[in-house]
Amino acid sequence: MANKLIVAPAPHVHGSESTQKIMRDVLLALTPALVFSVVAFGWSALAVTCISVASCVLFEYLIQKFLLTG
User: What is the pLDDT of residues 9-62, one digit of tens each?
Assistant: First the structure.
């Protein structure tokens, strides 16, 4: 009998950490890069970051509201 490849949706590895804790760690890890970019490039770097985050949140909301609802 031949071995079959079983494909399952992600995540394949389960852990005790929640998504909220992982995202908090990601934000903590990115903070030094944000601080350095503001020091190196000025306040416009912070403005670009804020606009990017706001755009992502807005588009996630719109996708959830209009595309993923039945």
Answer: 776 667 788 889 999 999 999 999 999 999 999 999 999 999 999 999 999 999
CA distances from 38 to 9, 16, 24, 25, 67 (A): 39, 35, 21, 21, 36
**Rounded CA gap, 15 and 13, in Å?**
7
- What lies within 8 Å, CB to CB, of 38 at 6+ separation is 45, 46
Burial of 37 (0-12, 13-18, 19+ CB in 10 A): middle
The whole-model pTM stands at: 0.66
Which of 56, 37, 32 is CA-nearest to residue 47?
A: 37
